[in-house]
Task: inverse folding
């Protein structure tokens, strides 16, 4: 019994001395001295040996817990990523925007087909094809300018203002559906494509700033999944609502306004992102800026081929 007590007492004294040395190291640590992990590892190892012997247990300090947390490289799952502020608000913001775009566009296309609208000598079939071109035209004209702006201002703030813009555009679209003003609906379709043009570069360039490299593939996959799911749901719902015999215009208006408001509320939760090229001059010539972007992309073969592959995918789709 006496040797056991002596062993326990000596072990306790030894542990207290080591703990006091570690604490004095923490309080007197200076830049350029030994890394903080070394004394903690020594105490941790000796604590582990004593724990196996059944005499004493040593718990990590708060500093060591923070160190272990920062050194963790565990990859976050996709479902968990959606629940975190660094990714979830951006995901739902782009989901609401893509849903609204396709609901409005498909509702307008079916409305043209059902009502057999004609402008000048254009038939309803030609107007349907024209609607697709009107929506895509801003992407071709203003994408380079949109990319410059997303680099020069805060991307999070830019996305908030784009969502405010979307609310205004959807208000005009709602008036067009309720009153049956076809020219207004066509103009709103162009403005929707324009706001989506400015949202795209901010959305994709924000991902590397919000996610570490090991989660970029997961983040991109979820953004693309959300985009195509929103396209599918918006296309189906737009066709169902516009084909209703009564109240279809009011239901479409309420739906697009509701999703525009949800997208704006979600954008307010996106973490603040500082501008990355604030001093860079803005090239307002959209044709020259587009040519410059293409010239830069051709210098890197992998980037240029990726652009061609994505463009071919959207052309066929």
Result:
């Amino acid at each position: 019994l006496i040797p056991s007590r002596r062993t326990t007492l000596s072990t306790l004294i030894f542990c207290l001395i080591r703990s006091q040395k570690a604490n004095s190291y923490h309080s007197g640590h200076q830049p350029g001295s030994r890394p903080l992990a070394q004394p903690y590892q020594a105490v941790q190892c000796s604590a582990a040996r004593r724990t196996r012997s059944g005499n004493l247990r040593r718990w990590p300090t708060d500093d060591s817990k923070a160190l272990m947390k920062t050194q963790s490289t565990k990859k976050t799952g996709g479902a968990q990523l959606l629940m975190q502020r660094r990714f979830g608000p951006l995901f739902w913001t782009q989901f609401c925007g893509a849903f609204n775009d396709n609901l409005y566009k498909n509702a307008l296309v079916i409305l043209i087909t059902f009502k057999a609208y004609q402008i000048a000598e254009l038939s309803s079939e030609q107007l349907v094809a024209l609607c697709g071109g009107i929506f895509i035209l801003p992407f071709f004209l203003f994408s380079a300018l949109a990319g410059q702006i997303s680099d020069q201002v805060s991307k999070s703030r830019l996305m908030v203002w784009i969502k405010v813009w979307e609310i205004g555009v959807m208000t005009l679209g709602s008036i067009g559906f309720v009153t049956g003003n076809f020219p207004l609906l066509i103009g709103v379709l162009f403005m929707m494509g324009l706001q989506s043009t400015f949202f795209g570069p901010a959305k994709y360039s924000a991902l590397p700033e919000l996610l570490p490299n090991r989660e970029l593939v997961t983040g991109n996959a979820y953004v693309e999944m959300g985009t195509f799911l929103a396209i599918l749901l918006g296309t189906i719902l737009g066709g169902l609502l516009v084909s209703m015999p009564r109240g279809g215009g009011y239901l479409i208006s309420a739906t697009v306004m509701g999703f525009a408001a949800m997208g704006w509320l979600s954008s307010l939760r996106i973490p603040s992102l500082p501008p990355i090229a604030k001093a860079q001059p803005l090239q307002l010539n959209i044709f020259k800026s587009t040519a410059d972007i293409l010239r830069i992309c051709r210098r890197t073969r992998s980037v240029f081929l990726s652009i061609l592959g994505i463009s071919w995918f959207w052309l066929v789709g």
